[in-house]
Amino acid sequence: MCIGNKDTNGTGWHFNLPIPVLYIFLMLGSLGSLGADDSQTRIMEKVIALEQTLQELMDKIEGLDRRITALEKGAPAHRETPRVAPPQESAAEKKAKKLIDIGQGFYVLNLGYEGIVENTVFTGELENSGTKDYQFVLLKVEVYDGKGNLLGDNVLNIDGMSVGTTKPFKITIYGVNVRDVANYEIKFVKGF
Q1: 22-45 pLDDT per residue, tens
Q2: Residues 134 and 161 in one domain
């Protein structure tokens, strides 16, 4: 049977396409509907995930509201044991460890840098010796030539810096050859 031409005796149509081609079209049509179901499933999964996230946020807001209410009444906001700061080292002990004070209670330990191709890579460890936990800390490294001209800089985000923690870091100053670096500066930019 074929698709497309009228029968020679005028009683019907002849089809130029063989039957297997029709099966292919029918299969493609059913596959297209499967794709629609798949996208509907993905949309439903995203809606469910959003609902769960919204519920978590609502729970957090309710917890904050309870804490605020408790603070307004003069009661402690939560019953957490007070955090004891780690023992403070003397300036001489810190200098012996070759710590670099970058502010806000943060120190850089074991700092080094090397050239990789036409870039300068700094490695070291960041220590939170302060009294505050940080979800993230933003550092900035600047490198200078012998005349004090800024050659380049880059920023680095380090997550989860609780009091007393030390985390390794690696930051690349792109396009600055290590032979040109005469001086550098590491700064605490911000954190919360």
Answers
A1: 555 555 554 444 455 677 777 877
A2: yes
Contact status, residue 150 vs residue 142, Cβ threshold 8 Å: yes
Evaluate whether residue 8 is within a structural domain: yes
| Tens digits of residue pLDDT in 118-172 | 999 999 999 999 999 999 999 999 999 999 999 999 999 999 999 999 999 999 9
Contacts of 21 (CB under 8 A, 6+ apart): none
By residue range, what is the domain housing residue 60? 4-73
Q: Please report, as a single letter, which amino acid is at residue 38.
A: D
Residue 137 lies in a domain: yes
